[in-house]
Design goal:
It contains ten helices and ten strands. It is an alpha/beta fold. Bound molecules: NADP nicotinamide-adenine-dinucleotide phosphate (NAP).
Length: 340
């Protein structure tokens, strides 16, 4: 039996899963499977979940080289295709890691080789900050090579991302962990505009201004940590963090619909218009099934809109480039790009 037994009596027809239309006309499944094992779920377990998820109807997989499991996921993707799913029926994303901003083409080729694919549907610049930090390092650790956002440098990386599209290795390119001031510059200077922005989005961190900006500028918002990342590594936790799945509003809506609070978060995300990419090795059937069934009512959507706490869970402390800085510097909270 698969690791995921909860939440689904029969597979969902992938064609019935809602899709987001990108500016190229391509259609991206409006819910995907996250694949970051948060340092405690092994590559083999994630790869097994990818196969299990495909069997119950997932077609969208959010990968990244830094998750350290693309080779194992590649074997699953190959098996899924050997089982009859066509490559065009899959949506596979990967991401350029922070220490490879000057090595875009080779990094993409490495992800393609690991994932056993000829092309990616989407390739993202994972973070807009070049740096190197060893996997699993403490939040207080700072990298000597850490750099702030310098637009000219980001655009050098972006030119290579554009080249990947020209080369046919990648169908779409996008950004992640960006802010409005940074995106404005990229949109001004890009030859091939970002098709998506991947960003933290859950009921306690709704980012309404950035969400609106992304949509109004023709990008699709992809929402990470859609459940509030209950399994995130210890280094990504602070005492101020809250859990959307424990919010009384979410708990009450879950009770009413007889579903898990996590599934309420997924329903809300899809109905609001973002593409959630929940990670799961045990509960992924329920998350996909959540897209179907009784929708949340207008009143329930309004209740959830009202519980935003502006509670960012993934603060990115290790990417700071100067001693004494607070993580807010990464997020341009005063509306301007934080100066070097
Ligand atoms: N672009 C970026 O910088 C960035 C940053 C962070 C994350 N991401 C992406 O976003 C994905 C999702 O974020 P995340 O993994 O941090 O957090 P998440 O999806 O919010 O939460 C995942 C956790 O929720 C549990 N869960 C999932 N569905 C559940 C359900 N129906 N009932 C109960 N528990 C449930 C999972 O446990 P089980 O496994 O036991 O089901 C897992 O521990 C990542 O895997 C990654 O692909 C991207």
């Amino acid at each position: 039996m698969s690791t995921a037994s909860k939440g689904l009596s029969e597979p969902i027809n992938p064609a019935a899963v809602p899709r987001r239309r990108l500016y190229t006309g391509a259609a991206m499944p409006a819910v995907g499977l996250g694949t970051f094992g948060s340092d405690h779920v092994t590559p083999a377990q994630v790869a097994e979940a990818v196969k299990g998820a495909a069997a119950v109807g997932y077609r969208h997989f959010d990968c990244a080289s830094v998750y350290g499991n693309e080779a194992e996921i590649g074997a699953s993707l190959e098996a899924i295709q050997a089982g009859g799913v066509k490559r065009e029926g899959l949506w596979v994303t990967s991401k350029l890691w922070n220490d490879k901003h000057n090595d875009v083409i080779a990094s993409c080729r490495k992800s393609l080789a690991d994932l056993r694919l000829d092309y990616l549907d989407l390739y993202l610049v994972h973070w807009p900050f070049p740096n190197f930090h060893p996997p699993g390092c403490d939040v207080t650790s700072r990298s000597a090579s850490a750099k702030p956002y310098i637009h000219e440098n980001y655009m050098k990386t972006w030119r290579k991302m554009e080249e990947l599209v020209d080369m046919g290795l990648v169908r779409h390119i996008g950004t992640s962990n960006m802010t409005i001031p940074k995106l404005k510059l990229v949109l001004r200077d890009a030859r091939i505009k970002p098709a998506v922005n991947e960003m933290e989005l859950h009921p306690h961190f709704q980012q309404p201004d950035l969400f609106k900006f992304v949509v109004e500028n023709g990008m699709q918002p992809i929402g990470y940590c859609p459940i509030g990342s209950p399994g995130r590594p210890e280094r990504d936790r602070t005492p101020e963090d809250t859990a959307p799945t424990e919010d009384p509003v979410i708990v009450e809506i879950a009770r009413r619909h007889a579903i898990h609070p996590a599934v309420v978060c997924i329903k809300w995300a899809v109905q609001r218009g973002q593409t959630p990419i929940p990670f799961s090795i045990h509960n992924y059937p329920a998350n996909l099934a959540g897209v179907f069934g009784t929708p949340l009512t207008g009143e329930e959507m309004r209740e959830i809109a009202a519980i935003d706490r502006n509670c960012r869970l993934i603060k990115g402390q290790v990417f700071l480039w100067k001693d004494g800085q607070s993580w807010e510097a990464l997020w341009d909270t005063d509306g301007e790009i934080t100066p070097p």
